[in-house]
Write a structure and sequence with these properties.
There is one protein chain. By secondary structure, the protein is mostly helical. It has one domain. It has 6 helices and no strands. The radius of gyration is 19 Å and the shape is globular. 12% of the residues are buried.
Length: 137
């Protein structure tokens, strides 16, 4: 009976561990990055004061900071990916399905920056903005 219980516990534990592991495949990492930007845009659109804007930016910064090591691995494999996001290079063929999604995010982010400008005088917002900038480098 102890062996069965032990085997069951180990099996459940292994399933949990494998289920929690996030893939480092470039496509998955870029999809998670796009999700983070979509969440930021949605959260900022709902924000109606500086405090809620700060919460939105800090939430995004935390996600991007966790994603950064995995994104760095993508950059190792695709060194020109930064140029892709800056519009200086086409998306690699492997990511053609993500191209449209990132093209849609760009204008939304630009519009979002206009909203962020009205909070720039607030020192707390400036600190959140600094963290935001660090998280996307």
């Amino acid at each position: 009976m102890k062996k069965i219980t032990l085997i069951t516990i180990l099996t459940v534990f292994m399933l949990i561990l494998t289920g929690c592991h996030k893939s480092d495949s470039p496509t998955v990492v870029l999809e998670e990055m796009a999700d983070a930007f979509d969440d930021l845009i949605a959260d900022m659109e709902k924000s109606d004061d500086v405090d809620s804007a700060i919460v939105s930016i800090e939430k995004f910064s935390v996600v991007m900071k966790k994603l950064k090591p995995r994104m760095d691995k993508v950059k190792e494999k695709y060194p020109d990916i930064d140029k892709t996001f800056k519009g200086k290079r086409e998306f690699p063929e492997e990511f053609k399905d993500l191209k449209k999604r990132f093209e849609e995010i760009g204008p939304k982010l630009s519009a979002l920056m206009g909203k962020m400008i009205k909070y720039m005088g607030d020192p707390k917002f400036q600190e959140a903005q600094r963290k935001f900038q660090e998280s996307i480098k």
